[in-house]
Design brief:
Layout lengths: L1 E5 L3 H18 L4 E5 L2 H5 L9 E5 L7 H9 L6 E6 L5 H4 L6 E4 L4 H16 L4 E6 L2 E6 L3 E7 L2 E6 L4 E4 L4 H8 L4 E5 L2 E4 L3 E4 L3 E4 L4 E3 L5 H13 L7
Parallel strand pairs: 1-2, 1-3, 3-4, 4-5
Antiparallel strand pairs: 6-7, 8-9, 8-12, 9-10, 11-12, 13-14, 14-15
């Protein structure tokens, strides 16, 4: 696993580096890391370095961590971003760039190690998803890559996180229970099931995915959808802690 640490506070940068060295020594985990003093320096390497995790300070002179994250999400939707901040007030805003978590400064060993354990466990976990039959043959639809499912004219359209669409001749009932048994999926309208991880914005009548697609929300289901979305933001990611 490749990690980039970006913080303009050299003392904090040294502290995090020391913690990463300790984690590496204690766990023998296969990870390497690189440190950066500003966001511009980090961005200049993103095209040639395939990072798995970014530890990104929010408040930095010049380009802030949040501004850098927005730019990064324009070309990389997969890298996990963990914000470093002295105040939890930025936590909600961080979900607009699909952040993985945030850590209050000074960074504690327990919090950092917990996040590293989670990221490594996810990397090692088997890829979970659905196997469906399309016109071209059998296709594997990974839950993590699925933005939403739309039903139209007795066909299922799997809208993926990268904007592509997989068409399947099958009723929703064939996959509905399997999707809704997972906490990240919610039915927002009779014809739509959405992955909450892929929601960039929730409005009163519709939601927008990170890929920029708009999905209508049923008036009758709005309260349930909103509750699921807020639970996803605040409880699953520990914003209240």
């Amino acid at each position: 696993m490749k990690i980039a640490v970006c913080d303009d506070d050299l003392q904090e940068l040294d502290r995090i580096s020391s913690l990463l060295d300790t984690y590496l020594k204690d766990t023998k985990a296969g990870l390497i890391y690189k440190t950066f003093h500003n966001a511009t320096e980090l961005l200049s390497t993103m095209s040639i370095s395939d990072y798995d995790l970014l530890l990104l300070d929010i408040l930095m002179p010049g380009m802030t961590g949040m501004e850098a994250a927005h730019e990064i999400r324009g070309f990389d939707t997969e890298v996990k971003i963990v914000f470093l901040t002295s105040s939890p007030e930025f936590a909600v805003e961080s979900y607009a760039v699909k952040s993985y978590d945030y850590i209050l400064k000074p960074v504690s060993k327990d919090k950092l190690f917990s996040i590293l354990d989670s990221v490594i466990a996810e990397e090692q976990k088997p890829l979970e998803g659905l196997t469906v039959k399309t016109q071209s043959g059998l296709t594997r639809i990974l839950f993590s890559k699925l933005a939403f499912v739309e039903v139209m004219n007795k066909k299922l359209y799997f809208n993926m996180a990268d904007g592509s669409v997989r068409e399947v001749s099958s009723p929703l009932v064939d996959i509905e229970d399997q999707l809704l048994s997972r906490p990240e999926f919610v039915k927002v309208q009779r014809s739509y099931i959405v992955n909450l991880w892929q929601v960039a914005e929730l409005g009163a009548k519709e939601l927008i995915t990170h890929a920029g697609k708009t999905v209508p929300i049923s008036r009758l289901l709005y309260r349930k959808v909103r509750e699921a979305y807020m639970k996803h933001l605040f409880l699953e990611k520990g914003v209240e802690r």
